Fold:
Amino acid sequence: MKKNGYFITFEGPEGSGKSTQIRMLADALLKLGVRCLITREPGGTDFAEKLRALIKNYPGPETIHPETELLLIEAARAQHVAEKILPALAEGKVVLCDRFTDSSSAYQGAARGLGLEAVARLNAFATRGRLPDVTILLDLPPQRGFARTRKRQETQGEFDRFEVEDLEFHRQVRQAFLALAAAEPERFLVADADREQESVHQELLAKLTARQDFLRFQAERIGK
Structure:
């Protein structure tokens, strides 16, 4: 399948404001005449959303083991990529995805201790080798993320298996994200998420629209 679109993923610790930044970027790109698809992982399709409910909200009594968790996420990802992401890219859209393979590397590979190599192999299989064109990492200290997710739990009352993990788990997740970004600086755009949302948005929009690959994508669209 020919790649005509542009694939942007958003990563970050719990409470980093990914959903808000995705909506703001989608609105800004629409004003530039760019068609966008907003989606998320785990989830994004009807079947994958059913797996998401198990992965994130299953309360027990059985323990979901790290290996099981990872395989469920990869199953949801394979469905999501095949049914939604690749078709949208083939239509020339910008795909804005809330979490993708880097979350599996950080959460299951690092914090759950399954190892980055094993996760990378499963990621490649589930995605058919499709990587993001750019990954936006919203960096936030775990303590600040805790404060945000606690407020969300109080207002929405929904149990989330990841949000209830302890502070050390979330420290490992954050450090893993930062290490991934340091290893691939050409793919990652890192922003401090511990500030006003509009300020974060303006920084990300400026960085994205200055990228040569994004400029080429826009030029190709204008030429069609």
